[in-house]
Amino acid sequence: MEAQLKAEFPADTPPDDIAATPSELNPALVAGLRDLLGERFSTAPADREHHGRGESYHAIQPPQAVCRALSTDEVSGIVKLCAKFDTPVVAFGAGTSLEGHVAARRGGICIDVGGMTRIVAVRPGDLDCTVEAGVTRQQLNAHLRDTGLFFPVDPGAECTIGGMAATRASGTNAVRYGTMRENVISLTVVMADGSIIRTSSRARKSSAGYDLTRLIVGSEGTLGIITEVTIRLYGVPEAMASAVCSFPDMGSAVAAVTTIIQFGIPVARVEFLDSNAMRATNKHSGLTLDEVPTLFFEFHGSEASVAEQAELVKEIVADNGASGFQWASDPEARAQLWRARHNIHYAIQGMRPNARVWSTDVCVPISALTQVMTETQPDLEAASFFIATVGHVGDGNFHLGLCIDPTSAAELAEAEILNERLVRRAIALDGTCTGEHGVGYGKAKFMNLEHGDGVRFMRMIKQALDPKDILNPGKILPAA
Ligand SMILES: Cc1cc2nc3c(=O)[nH]c(=O)nc-3n(C[C@H](O)[C@H](O)[C@H](O)COP(=O)(O)OP(=O)(O)OC[C@H]3O[C@@H](n4cnc5c(N)ncnc54)[C@H](O)[C@@H]3O)c2cc1C
Description:
Layout: H1 2-8, H2 27-37, E1 41-42, H3 45-50, E2 65-68, H4 72-84, E3 89-92, E4 109-112, E5 119-123, E6 128-132, H5 137-144, E7 149-150, H6 161-167, H7 174-177, H8 180-183, E8 184-190, E9 196-198, H9 212-216, E10 225-232, E11 234-235, E12 239-246, H10 250-262, E13 269-273, H11 275-285, E14 294-301, H12 303-319, E15 323-328, H13 331-342, H14 344-349, E16 356-363, H15 369-382, E17 387-392, E18 397-404, H16 409-428, H17 447-451, H18 454-465
Parallel strand pairs: 2-4, 3-4
Antiparallel strand pairs: 1-2, 5-6, 6-10, 7-11, 8-9, 8-10, 12-14, 12-15, 13-14, 13-17, 16-18, 17-18
Helix pairs in contact: 2-4, 10-12, 10-15, 15-16
């Protein structure tokens, strides 16, 4: 397997050059952190292990200590101490990332901001709000329930708004409402020397200088630690309706989506699940949907526009061979459908005892989606383990959930080949190695292939903002 991998991908950059055993923490650093945080400084093995893994298939790499911060000033104090002792700092939100993002590759300190859960301000008149980094999207939407507003970005895990900004996350609603890139207005960030900055004002547009907000969004804790996030809010639509329909094959489902997007129909959600994903979903969520390639839709708007969108979509899917267009208009039926979609990761995991899901995502221009998915199909059919395909296909983004035995070297090697082939196909079609999960260290080896000489300039930015390389070292950028 390894020989095959090397033969097929000779140009890959090695994943990293990280030392296996970090040196002991400096006792003066430990004393300083204990003074600052008291019992919120922990070296308990279980705590360290929990903070060194995330939800990915990667091995655990625990930090040497965990600091639970409760304010921007505390984060700044911790980073200042770590900078003084050249000690790595890894930010941690909810630990749901999928590419080894939170692994402490050089040891050091984890700053867990999950306790920073204050909703600082909700401003209905400006359709925005400011929250501390540890607020989860579910907590925010529960808080907003009586205001007629909501925050739409919805990864399929209970994660923090700070973590979502750090990974430039998105979800099922991105086709209509955009990703964190479009929805973050401003950030409060602790920089590598402990300075605290605000990346911009709350103005909806600005031509004043470099766009630090968008530099930090997606930087995965490698350029600064986000402590507050100001984000856009939206009015809850007057009407919403969901529907599912089945297709004879993947190609016709994807062709239908491509037509819907190219016609400019403003669907709020359009999600693809292949027959394996449907099998896993039925089993996990107790549904009885047909186990064939399927699209889940949601429409938002006025009663009239929802009816109009749905009618147009119904025509397009019928032209592409769809059958069994089923409506879920009442809130409970809709919620059940989308809960099932959101639980797909765990549904795939449940298809095999003691399995772990290697979840990989790529994204291509919508016109290339059919090609990349069709070319990937033979790899899926040849695999020795269960794989399900799901996708936020309206964005040209899809995921493979590889249900592997993480203790099997043969399966890990097979999964790696499959992943590499997928990523190379996507990049060859002017796509990206990850549409939303981010790079962590799992996908760092694809950065040269995707960005070419652009990586050199990314290194310069990293060097300028974090000259001691203490912020989440070994992530995003491949070994030089
Ligand atoms: C079941 C499942 C479904 C998922 N579905 C989606 C999906 O649909 N779309 C999607 O985009 N992702 C998805 N993900 C991935 C994951 O949920 C997102 O990447 C999420 O944004 C991570 O947030 P978190 O709070 O868990 O961050 P963590 O995992 O704790 O951290 C992620 C990265 O961000 C950094 N970080 C965290 N907080 C901060 C901060 N305050 N400041 C600076 N850096 C920080 C960390 O150092 C790390 O590099 C899914 C994951 C799972 C397990």
